[in-house]
């Protein structure tokens, strides 16, 4: 039986918040991920490796079986167009909200509003559900800049404290979705490595429950 596990995770906020949950499942990186340039990290569990990749690539690695498991923000999963992963567990980390934001008290434009965002699919779905026409402009970062320079009327972005919006004279206007990181698994790994995956998920789920008492 193959009982090794490869877990895909992105560096940064999600990884930092995931470390205590991974530790609860006896998975602790051997090298310091902040200083190491390695993309595959050994862990204190010789059967578990971590692969460090871009956030938006995590579901791709998991769908194609390059990683058995992944830790991915719900924002990324809402954008992902594949269908080859199971979303198993809400890790309740890296929590924030996907929101429409814009200038306070701004009048709606007379033409179709322009929305700048990295979250094109989520934005399209949201405005369609609201029965509102909108022109979506795809950006790869610094969405807050778009209304300031007249590129868009609104943005769709992640909001945590709201400080970034405020610092740029913007405010949250409409709530689209609550976001947190999720544990996802490759469908084949779920079958072929069922006992190993189940044991790992069980330990992580216990740690999540302990940190978030009902
Ligand atoms: P804040 O100023 O605390 O509202 O944070 C907003 C900025 O941080 C935006 O640029 C977001 O894209 C980013 N951000 C906030 N929360 C998250 C998260 N959970 N995951 C990734 N990026 C986030």
Topology:
Blueprint: E1 5-9, H1 13-24, E2 40-42, E3 48-52, H2 58-63, E4 69-73, H3 74-79, E5 85-90, E6 96-102, E7 114-117, H4 120-129, E8 135-138, H5 145-148, E9 154-159, H6 163-167, E10 171-179, E11 181-186, H7 187-192, H8 194-211
Parallel strand pairs: 1-3, 1-4, 7-8, 7-9
Antiparallel strand pairs: 2-3, 4-11, 5-11, 6-9, 6-10
The structure holds adenosine monophosphate (AMP).
List its salient traits.
214 residues; alpha/beta; D-Maltodextrin-Binding Protein, domain 2; 2 domains; 6-stranded mixed beta sheet; 5-stranded mixed beta sheet; 8 helices; 11 strands; elongated; binds adenosine monophosphate
Can I get a quick summary?
This protein has 214 residues and is of the alpha/beta class. It has helices at residues 13-24, 58-63, 74-79, 120-129, 145-148, 163-167, 187-192, 194-211; strands at 5-9, 40-42, 48-52, 69-73, 85-90, 96-102, 114-117, 135-138, 154-159, 171-179, 181-186.
Order of helices and strands: EHEEHEHEEEHEHEHEEHH
CATH top level of the largest domain is: Alpha Beta
> Quick one: CATH superfamily of the largest domain?
Periplasmic binding protein-like II
What coarse outline follows from CA principal-axis ratios? Answer: elongated
Strand order of the largest sheet: 2-3-1-4-11-5
Proportion of helical residues: 25-40%
Which residue ranges are poorly predicted, with pLDDT under 50 across at least 5 consecutive positions?
none
The total tally of domains equals 2
**Proportion of strand residues:** 25-35%
The pLDDT mean sits at 96
What profile does the largest beta sheet have? 6 strands, mixed
How many angstroms does the end-to-end distance come to?
37 Å
The third-level CATH topology of the largest domain is: D-Maltodextrin-Binding Protein, domain 2
- Class inferred from helices and paired strands: alpha/beta
Number of helices: 8
Q: Ligands in the structure?
A: adenosine monophosphate
Radius of gyration: 19 Å
What is the CATH architecture descriptor of the largest domain?
3-Layer(aba) Sandwich
DSSP E strands, number: 11
């Amino acid at each position: 039986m193959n009982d090794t596990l490869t877990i895909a995770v992105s560096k940064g906020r999600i990884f930092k918040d995931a470390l205590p949950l991974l530790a609860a499942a006896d998975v602790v990186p051997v090298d310091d991920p902040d200083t190491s340039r390695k993309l595959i990290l050994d862990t204190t569990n010789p059967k578990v490796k971590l692969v460090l990749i871009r956030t938006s690539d995590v579901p791709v690695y998991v769908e194609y079986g390059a990683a058995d498991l992944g830790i991915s923000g719900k924002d990324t999963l809402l954008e992902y167009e594949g269908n080859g992963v199971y979303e198993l567990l809400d890790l309740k980390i890296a929590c924030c909200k996907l929101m429409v934001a814009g200038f306070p008290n701004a009048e709606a434009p007379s033409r179709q509003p322009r929305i700048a965002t990295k979250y094109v699919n989520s934005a399209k779905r949201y405005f369609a559900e609201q029965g509102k026409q909108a022109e979506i402009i795809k950006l790869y970062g610094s969405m807050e800049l778009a209304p300031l320079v007249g590129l868009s009327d609104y943005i769709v972005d992640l909001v945590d404290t709201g400080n970034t919006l405020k610092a740029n004279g913007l405010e949250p206007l409409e709530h689209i979705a609550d976001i947190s990181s999720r544990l996802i698994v490759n469908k084949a790994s779920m079958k072929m490595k069922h006992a190993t995956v189940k044991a790992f998920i069980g330990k992580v789920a216990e740690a999540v429950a302990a940190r978030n008492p009902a």
